[in-house]
């Protein structure tokens, strides 16, 4: 089973790129972030014609997440991250697909920092940590995946000294990410490639892509039940070089097929 995450940076504007990539790689499950489209403007017909079922949570101009599945049923669990009933930003979805819980997320950027946007990001991380702990307790296969907007270590950022005051690299942000991992999650890329320079994002400015001046901010966190089935992982870096492409590249993993009954405890 091949599972991917892709921050499309505008699902309608980048639709030709998305469809080309789907046709080229045919992942079984895909999580999309930064749709930048209201709920009624998601290109469902085009996605269906490409062979995918879809659920999505849109938002006008900003944010937005979606989960796609190729020839598989998607059972939605929730489209909000628990912990703040007043949070209206479309940044989180959970679904059950063939016994696998998929949690698609688009974590806040947090800049400019310090300030209210960083405070929102750290609070969002707290909510995510609580949800992650709850999901782990179910003892069922779970993947947290998407754009986490954090570079966990210096290996994950080109010239880290330039990012010391950025909300994607602040010590408290990196600690928040590490605290979730330390609950018992596995960072899939670092599990397979502990010492390699791997990026998933390249800015549009200063020829960042051609210079490979990138960041690794799109991540897969695997529960123990999934981590033991991990076979391979990678970044489709070449997609970033396509015309009118997102500033992110698709990231993917391959795992042995998981087909288990739903968790005995209800997911709430």
Automatic annotation (TrEMBL):
Signal sequence segment: none
Pfam families associated with the record: Exo_endo_phos (PF03372)
Stated name of the protein: Exodeoxyribonuclease III
Keywords of this entry: Hydrolase, Magnesium, Manganese, Metal-binding
Site (Important for catalytic activity): 218
Binding, Mg(2+): 7, 34, 147, 149, 247-248
GO annotation, biological process: DNA repair
């Amino acid at each position: 089973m091949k599972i991917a995450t892709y921050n499309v940076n505008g699902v309608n504007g980048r639709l030709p790129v998305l469809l080309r990539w789907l046709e080229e790689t045919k992942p079984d499950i895909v999580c999309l972030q930064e749709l930048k489209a209201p709920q009624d403007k998601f290109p469902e017909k085009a996605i269906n014609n490409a062979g995918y079922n879809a659920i999505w949570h849109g938002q006008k101009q900003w944010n937005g997440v979606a989960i796609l599945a190729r020839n598989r049923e998607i059972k939605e669990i929730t489209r909000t991250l628990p912990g703040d009933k007043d949070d209206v930003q479309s940044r989180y979805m959970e679904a059950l697909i063939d016994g696998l819980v998929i949690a698609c997320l688009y974590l806040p950027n947090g800049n400019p920092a310090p300030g209210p946007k960083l405070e929102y990001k750290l609070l969002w991380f707290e909510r995510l940590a609580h949800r992650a702990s709850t999901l782990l307790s179910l003892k069922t296969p779970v993947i947290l995946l998407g754009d986490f907007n954090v570079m966990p270590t210096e290996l994950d950022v080109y010239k880290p000294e330039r990012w010391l005051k950025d909300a994607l690299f602040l010590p408290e942000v990196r600690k928040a990410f590490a605290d979730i991992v330390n609950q018992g999650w596995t960072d899939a890329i670092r599990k397979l490639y502990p010492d390699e320079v791997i990026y998933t994002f390249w800015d549009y400015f200063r020829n960042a892509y051609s210079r490979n001046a990138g960041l690794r901010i799109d991540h897969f966190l695997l529960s123990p039940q999934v981590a033991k089935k991990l076979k391979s992982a990678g970044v489709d870096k070449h997609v970033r070089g396509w015309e009118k492409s997102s500033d992110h590249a698709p990231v993917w993993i391959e795992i042995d097929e998981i087909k288990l009954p739903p968790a005995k405890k209800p997911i709430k």
